[in-house]
Amino acid sequence: MSWPAISCRGLSRRFGEVVAVDRLDLEIEGPGLHGFLGANGAGKTTTLRMLVGLLRPSAGTIRLLGQDPDAPELRRLLGYLPQEPAFYPWMRGDEYVEHVAAIYGIERREARRRAGDLLERCGLGAKARRRRIGGYSGGMRQRLGIAQALVGDPRLLLLDEPVSALDPLGRAEVLELLRELGRDRAVFMSSHILADVERICPRVTILADGRLIADEATAELKARAHRPGLEALIRGDGEALRRRLEALPGVRLAELAAAAEGDPAGSQRLRISCDAPEVAEVEVPRALLDAGARLLALAPREPSLEEVFIHLVGARREDVPEDRT
Amino acid sequence: MRGLRAALAKEWLELRRTHRLTVLAVLFVLIGLGSPLLAALTPELLSGLAGDELGGMELILTREPSTTDALFQYHKNYSLLPLVVILSAAGAVAGERARGTAAMALARPLSRSAFIVAKALALALALTLGTLLAAAGALLYTQALFGAVELAGFALVNGLLLLLLLFYVALTLAASVIAPGPLAAAGIGLGGLAVVAITGMIPLTSRLSPAGLSAAALDLLLGREPVVIAGPVVVTLALTTGLLALALAVFRRQEI
Question: Which three-class secondary structure state does DSSP give residue B252?
Fold first, then answer.
């Protein structure tokens, strides 16, 4: 059964003449993972800071878990990780999480147990957590940040770039943890790493220049923004073929792509994005054969979330001149 | 106040781990033990300094140093502490805001009032313990070197001096909330120190200024009459409370 996690109506924030967030309407339900995307300066961090009460909205309303954000008991139900988590360098990792647990009103023994368990799950071993935070690497600090966001057993997690400082292995571990958490709580996370969001977030919200440009299921977004496309595996002069295809009417983009695992030696991948299905299904294969390309494979292609994001944000920039005053 | 206990525990741990508590303790011990010692050694120090600088003239000391001299020295040395308090507390809020730790703290079930009050309480506790240390050291050493000290009067002197320090805690915390950074907060605190010192020098205002506490303490030590205590105490308590209330009111509305 779903429940309201985040509700914003007309949420706006100005900094002097600059409109950082512009009339944002958002309805996020829990449980589940929800990605929050946008280019640098789109307003993601500003929105998150308004949600946790660090910034006051210039206009609009916020409700979290169906409650007024100033409700005294609401904070016990929230967990927050800022984009650049800041800690007390003189504290040890385990001490910090225990201190946060104490703020949540968790009794000392339980706080100690919970801190140990969470730090372990977040990849900070016994030796690391007993070191002073001043000596932590960026990745360790981010893991500590995630642990402190979870210690109160929050119903709603607000995470600003939770995996940006982690190596690929660490990212995979933390994403798996977040996927697990999303089963029974609402996780609202911003990220620049779109592949990660695509992997674990069934729904995404995209901001551009402070405005909402998409808020829907990831699969639907990809289908809506989908341009018919093909991926061809060929032998021959890939660059010449690419230029020839790009000159074809109805072909929007043809590009050489990195080889995939298992591709035969000497082969090249061509990604072709078209304006219409018949171009993809008829014209391009014909053009490939007419060019004498040695075609090893040809298959339809689904765009990645990154491609959809670039397309949507790029299209918005073309339509709307830069003006956030 | 939500989270006050946890916040206070963190503030106390910070004072210990950053060695500020140790430094304060050492300072107070030096003031306590050093003041009577300095008073006892003053004749030798003066004789040693005089010598040839007096162009052949002889320095004659008309009396031996006494309990009064020791306690006067104590008062003088203790009066340097407001500067230490200002420099120590200037970054209390402004520093956390600049570093980002305030943002993380306030996103939790920790009230903004508890955040400020915990800092005030931790500093107040440290200064109170320090004053007890200094007073105990001064009392014991003065009695050992010079003779009996009137206990009730000495306790009252320390109470007045401690209250003055607590006023500076409130002033600097308010400055730390209002100012954009620790340096600016220290500047405001030092400005306040100057204003208090000036009001203490003007006869019209001296007995209604926090500086009156120091003056009253000195009068008590030197046995001067009358000793005006009520006015400075009431004004200082009112100012201290008002500054803390201002800090809380501003911080509650502040964006982090």
Answer: helix
